[in-house]
Amino acid sequence: MKKERESWILAVLLLLLLPYLITVVVLGRRACPVNREQTVEDYVAGVAASQISWEYSKETIKAQVVLARTNLSVKSEKERKEVLEETAAFFKGKHMNLEMLEKFHIFQEAARETSGEVLLTTQGEIKEAPYHGISSGKTRDGADVMGESYGYITSVESAKDRDSPLYVEGCYFSFQELEKRMKKNYGGFTFGETKVVEVKQTDGAGYVLELQIGNQMIQGEKIREILKLPSSCFSVQCSEEKVRFLCKGKGHGVGLSQYGAEQMALEGKEYKEILTYFFPEMQISEKE
Questions:
Q1: How far apart are CA 177 and CA 102, in angstroms?
Q2: How confident is the model over 108-157, as pLDDT tens digits?
Q3: Which helix (DSSP H) or strand (DSSP E) does residue 208 occupy?
Q4: What are residue 178's DSSP bridge partners?
Q5: How deeply is 211 buried, as exposed, middle or buried, from its count of CB atoms within 10 A (0-12, 13-18, 19+)?
Q6: Spatial contact of 135 and 158, defined as CB atoms under 8 Å apart
């Protein structure tokens, strides 16, 4: 009886302290003025937690933590501050309780177990390591999407992404809605009489590189942004009144597929194998 009472008191105290604990965990020294310099390790767990499903396996989470640490390492102080603000907003909007705190503990363990590890190019440079939710079944060459400076990111197969229940999504728009959204970005936009919406060019993974819509030629990633499509890997079908974008995958398709990584983890692959697979031209190394 005494033990039950003590457990109940502890639970209440933890619940009362949760907002403070999460703030300290996520914001580090900014929330708790300790006389030491703040490092990426202070908040990498919180940043990674804002980027991936908490239901994924620990090895997948460890891979995401390494990506988060890598990407934080190449950002400026201003950019890091923006990431921290986004992370704090994520936790503020999340219903944190004892169960969720226990799940977050996995991110903290993942950060400790991968401490200092980042991805390097074959030239030994730390560069951005992108990720996305679900690929089209194949990830994209970085150079096709982000330019030649991302040539160190190569396309790899991720066939099991096609098994995701979120793999395919149809997005429907009236021509009036399309015109309204396009004109917000391109003042001279018009459909004209023919109302053309046509894919002109795709990359090797099936993502749209160029689309003609009305009198405008537009990049696939730009139309994804304008229409808030889940992916730029899509086909287009037009009726008299509507246009359907049938999208495959979630996100830009470059780098690590989080769903594909999770399938590898479920097969028993460790985080280093996962990262090596999705970034064959990069290697894991401890940051000095």
A1: 44
A2: 999 999 999 999 999 999 999 999 999 999 999 999 999 999 999 999 99
A3: strand 208-213
A4: none
A5: buried
A6: yes
At 17 the pLDDT is 43
pLDDT tens-place string over residues 171-219: 999 999 999 999 999 999 999 888 999 999 999 999 999 999 999 999 9
- Amino acid 21 reads L
Is 1:75 a contact under the CB 8 Å cutoff?
Answer: no
Residue 10 reports pLDDT greater than 50: no
For residue 48, what are the contacts with CB-CB under 8 A and spacing of at least 6? 61, 64, 65, 67, 68, 107, 110, 111
Q: Given a cut of 90, is residue 23 above it in pLDDT? A: no
Cα separation, 62 vs 110, in Å, equals: 5
Instruction: Write out the DSSP string of 57-99.
Output: -HHHHHHHHHHHHHHHHTS-HHHHHHHHHHHHHHHHTS---HH
Angstrom distance (rounded) from CA 126 to CA 99: 35
Q: Cα separation of 161 and 166, whole Å?
A: 9
Contact yes or no for 201/209 (Cβ under 8 A) = yes
In 3D, which of 73, 177, 61 has the Cα closest to residue 129? Answer: 73
The predicted model scores a pTM of 0.87
3-state DSSP helix/strand/coil % of the chain, to nearest 5: 45, 20, 35
Please give the average per-residue pLDDT across 253-259, as a whole number: 98
pLDDT of residue 30 exceeding 70, the answer is no
Contact predicate 79/27, CB 8 Å: no
DSSP for 8-34, please give it: HHHHHHHHHHHHHHHHHHHHGGGTS--
Distances from the Cα of 122 to the Cαs of 129, 283, 288, in angstroms?
A: 14, 7, 16
The confidence score (pLDDT) of residue 288 equals 55
Angle between helices 58-73 and 258-266 (to 10 degrees): 140
